[in-house]
Amino acid sequence: MTPGSGGNGRRVFKAARFWNSNVVGACVGGALGGALIVVVMGVVVLENPTRGAILFAGVVVLALTLTVLWLVPGNGIAVYPYAVAVDQGRGLELHAVLRRVYIPASDLRDLRRSYLQPGYIVRLTRRHGLLGSFIIPWYFGDQAEPLAAAIREEIGRRTTPAPDL
């Protein structure tokens, strides 16, 4: 599978089907699990309306709310994209389940091999929402290495001075 190319130097790198289904399944499972926890907390409070039960339910619902806010408006869901579009000389567009996050080339700091999980970590010079870095896992398939090379090229293009004319 080769990266898709569009006009004006745009290349799209898509993850393997396994990774796509994994990312979508995790989002659906997380949403259903969160809904189930809210229902269980409602039952706990209705059946035992003590101060401790209400406090516990409130803390759990607050944690779920903060998680959802980090994932969607905070761009946390884009940490593991399922596709990345590289606009030559301009930047990257991360495609996540519920979001698309555009990162200008000037905000790309570096790309490093990850020691905690197989793949690459792309660090940013400034945050986009709460997104300070994103991961290209090996599960991205045969597109992981070409995508890493394209990102390195963008970082190199940014750091290489333009020739004098």
Largest sheet: 5 strands, antiparallel
| Radius of gyration, in angstroms, nearest whole number | 20 Å
What proportion of the residues is helical, as a percent range? 40-55%
Shape: elongated
Order of H and E elements: EEHHEEEEEEH
Query: Strands across the major sheet, in which order?
Result: 1-2-3-4-5
Mean pLDDT over the residues: 87
* Percentage of β-strand residues: 25-35%
**Count of individual beta strands:** 8
Low-pLDDT residue spans: none
Structural class, from secondary structure content?
Answer: alpha+beta
Total of DSSP H or I helical runs spanning 4+ residues: 3
Span between termini: 39 Å
What does this protein look like?
This protein has 165 residues and is of the alpha+beta class. It has helices spanning 17-47, 51-71, 144-159; strands at 4-5, 10-14, 83-87, 91-95, 100-104, 108-113, 119-128, 131-137. The strands form 2 sheets. Strands 1-2-3-4-5 form a 5-stranded antiparallel sheet, covered by helices on one side. Helix 1 runs antiparallel to helix 2. The two termini are 39 Å apart. The mean pLDDT is 87.
